[in-house]
Design brief:
Layout (H helix, E strand, L loop, with lengths): L12 H4 L9 E5 L3 H12 L3 E5 L11 H6 L6 E4 L5 H13 L5 E4 L5 H12 L4 E8 L4 H4 L2 E5 L2 H6 L1 H7 L9 E5 L3 H29 L6 H7 L9 H12 L15 H11 L5 H12 L6 H14 L13
Helix pairs in contact: 9-12, 9-13, 10-11
């Protein structure tokens, strides 16, 4: 049964105004962080005009959001690449007051898909169109291109296709771009993508630790590199792990503390909502939580229980180097 969280919108006169073709492809880009700045440069490399605004970046082309909007020809297109949640909502609110009917806003950040309906409704009150787009490619995207998962009206997708084509890798469009469905569907697909990423990363990490624990394995990085071609576990993530170990064979320069950006949690919540078993993604998420505990209270309890029922030795906090 189709989720009611992606409601079918009735085509009003206001909606139809969004189908006006773009006069010229000049894109405003809000947010020039690690992703946004590289996206701006890739668009320019591909011959598109991209004007960036970021109050916290020296690379900003405009002094204000108002100036950015004024520099764009109507109907305008603005791509938002700011942190999910309150920062995105703030920018959407500002754009709703600055843009005009027929303009279009794309949220390319990692917003939760449930936020897209609200963003779309806020903009629709002013006749402004809205697309959500999951973007994958990381800091390598400027050179390699980005995989794009877009949600929204097909007519609005078509209008922005020159932008999507410039951002994605060369080759068949279907290999790196998909119109997933209505508003919210793009971010839903990106959420699941990132949940899978959690599981893949955790599997590689556990394999690395097991190899490093075995004395007979004399060169762990060499083993992982030998998996890079021909094996069924080869992937870009494996290549990146090989590169990281090449730079620092013992990974001595970094801590094991691992953040999560939110999508892993949301993926697990959606798995529960749909009664879909997701043990690998769930375990990978919980492993990140465990990485943040210097001395896990849960594992202290396990140690105490083993001592109580079996008399197993318990290591004191002092002997473990924990004050």
């Amino acid at each position: 049964m189709r989720s009611t969280r992606f409601p079918r919108r009735h085509r009003s006169r206001q909606d139809r105004r969004c189908e006006t073709g773009m006069v010229t492809m000049k894109l405003g880009l809000v947010g020039l962080g690690k992703m946004g700045l590289n996206m701006r440069e890739r668009l320019r490399d591909r011959g598109l005009q991209a004007i960036g605004y970021d109050p916290n970046s020296a690379d900003s082309d405009a002094d204000s959001l108002e100036a950015l909007v004024e520099s764009l020809p109507a109907p305008r297109a603005v791509w938002v690449m700011v942190p999910a949640g309150a920062p995105t909502r703030q920018v959407i609110g500002q754009l709703s007051r600055l843009l005009a009917p027929g303009d279009v806003v794309v949220d390319g950040g990692n917003s939760r898909f449930t936020d897209d309906t609200l963003n779309s409704e806020i903009l629709a009150e002013h006749g402004i169109c809205y697309l959500d787009c999951g973007v994958s490619g990381g800091v390598w995207g400027r050179e390699n291109g980005y995989a794009l998962m877009a949600g929204g009206d097909a007519a609005d997708i078509d209008r922005l296709m020159p932008v999507f084509d410039a951002l994605r890798p060369d080759g068949a469009r279907e290999d790196s771009f998909v119109h997933v469905g209505p508003v919210g569907a793009g971010h839903y697909a990106k959420m699941v993508h990132n949940g899978i990423e959690y599981g893949l990363m955790q599997a590689y990490a556990e394999g690395y630790e097991l190899l490093a624990a075995e004395e007979s394995i004399v060169d762990v990085p060499a083993v992982l590199r030998a998996w890079s071609k021909g094996t069924v576990v080869r992937s870009w993530l494996l290549d990146l792990l090989v590169q990281a170990l090449s730079d620092d064979p013992q990974l001595a320069a970094i801590s094991g503390y691992t953040e999560d950006s939110g999508e892993g949690r949301w993926t697990v919540e959606e798995a529960i909502a749909h009664a879909v078993p997701a043990p690998v993604i769930s375990a990978a998420l919980f492993a990140r939580f465990a990485s943040r505990q210097d001395d896990s209270p849960a594992m202290k309890a396990v140690s105490a229980l083993r001592n109580q029922f079996g008399g197993h030795a318990v290591r004191s906090a002092a002997s473990s180097g924990i004050a």
